[in-house]
Amino acid sequence: MTATDPFALFEEWFALAREKEPNDPEAMSFSTATPEGRPSVRIVLLRSVGPRGFGFFTNLDSRKGNELAANPWGALAMHWKSLRRQVRAEGPVELVSDEEADVYFAGRGRESQIGSWASYQSRPLSSREEFESRVAQMTARFDDGTVPRPPRWSGFRLVPQTIEFWTDRPHRLHERRLFTRQGDGWTEGLLYP
Length: 193
Fold this sequence. Notes:
The protein is an alpha+beta fold. α4 (110-118) packs across α5 (128-141). Strands 1, 2, 3, 4, 5, 6, 7, 8, 9 and 10 form a 10-stranded antiparallel sheet that branches. The chain has helices at 6-20, 63-70, 98-107, 110-118, 128-141, and strands spanning 27-33, 39-45, 48-50, 53-59, 73-80, 85-95, 153-158, 162-167, 175-182, 185-191. It is elongated, with a radius of gyration of 19 Å. The protein is built from 5 helices and 10 strands. It has a domain at 6-100 and 153-191: Pnp Oxidase, Chain A, CATH 2.30.110. A hairpin with a 2-residue loop joins β9 (175-182) and β10 (185-191).
């Protein structure tokens, strides 16, 4: 039996989520772990998806960036409460190309671009005023034109080894479809709820 293409299925679900989910349909929980196995999770925004994987962008010096540099594996979950659906994926994580990062960064709003320069993401901050002062400094620095991508700002792509599609069913008799990467293709099966 030929497995369904999990990325085609994801695109169907994601299109419905963008239409029906009232807030942030692209929000996903993303988990990393230290080399010792201590996990951490946060919400990031899905910014690219396709046969190569699920992509997001961040400061490489952030906690997640440092954890991925030391232990390049991750897990994500997207839960669309209004649709009563969830997608989970696990696998190795790779950096996106400089070209991909440049294109995405150039399409961000100017204030978000400035914020990327002003923030020492995940590092201690003594006061909100200190951060606002850095934003003002960066605004002045780039006042005359284009804001380039900061050197320590890029993106990551989770290359899934597994993708699970969960659908809510009455009486907790949920449906769970599991896709497992097999060479250049996928196998498909079901899991007990």
